[in-house]
Amino acid sequence: MQYSKLEHAVNIFITPVRNHREHLFVSAGLDWLVQNSLKGSTSMKTPGMAVFKQQNVEDFYEVGEVLGSGQFAIVKRCKEKSTGAEYAAKFIKKRQSQASRRGVRREEIEREVDILQQIQHPNIVLLRDVFENRTDVVLILELVSGGELFDFLAQKESLSEEEATQFIKQILDGVQYLHSKGITHFDLKPENIMLLERNVLLPRIKLIDFGLAHKIKAGAEFKNIFGTPEFVAPEIVNYEPLGLEADMWSIGVITYILLSGASPFLGDTKQETLGNISAMNYDFDEELFSNTSELAKSFIRQLLEKDRRKRMTIQDALNHPWIKPLNPRQAMVKRLSVVNLENFRRQYARRRWKLSFRIVALCNHLTRIMKKGHKLPEQDGRDCESDQDEDILKRRPKSRKRSSTS
Description:
Phosphorylase Kinase, domain 1, three-stranded antiparallel β-sheet, Transferase(Phosphotransferase), domain 1, Kinase-like_dom_sf, alpha+beta, serine/threonine-protein kinase, 2 domains
């Protein structure tokens, strides 16, 4: 899917970058930051924060064609001169002053890269290197060529729950790794679940886009309103303390969509969507879930639990009998239960259309404002982290120490 200039105008900061012709995906994760840097290299490291090499990226990489762009980022194909290996260079425009709202604040980039430099897992995309110059931070990223998981599933002729859980298990494995490090992704959704490559028996999942990820310190209370409304947990909607549980809710929504194509809380407006989440307004429509096992529904219900204290943890999810059958009967149920892919394709296309329609409506609204001679407000580069206008970030994150007498 190619992104238009109109989408850029409405402040859609695209961390994912897609090029439809080549079906490439580029994002940040971590393999490792080169510990033994090339001779003569220098780097800048804020204590406890990310490492940025203060060198010209073109001294080490041949930078080629543009693969995609966002409001404050452009991604180009690049080739490492010393090895010939291909990567993608993501140039993130830095904010030049406190007064400006153009570009991304350096501390925001530091937070994302610092998290990525702690991560090395087969189900998370890899970050190779980080450079910085006067105007940009440049991330050298892995190219992931398999496209979105859900696009891949929509092209399959059949899909059993057993096959579906093989993909869900990979998602859980990646999230378990993050949670073991105290990292919450905060933006898990189908668009951020990619495949390393397609033409293999079981494609490998890659979780991408860590623009909203946070590592919440023990004893700290963290609140924020951000993410993609369709997938945010009730505690985000209600501006309550946040933690690892928010990711588990998102996995519940993702699983619901995977088994039906329909989105459990998606309304006609953002406000309606958030209201549906707060009111727990969802069900298992018989037409969409007639072939779905009770085990699968149980898995979803225990993730879509409004009280985050009662919601399944990542370990609970990995041990759930839908993922890890306790006996041959449960394993047989998974093999015999199938996803209605005709419904999946129809419902998923409807969801995509609805989201695209909202982008067009917003663009039209902004065009009318401009025609009236009003200046569009400049927005924060991290207020919209997604490839849709569905992202919200109305308040700055607040983090404070919990009282020891609570």
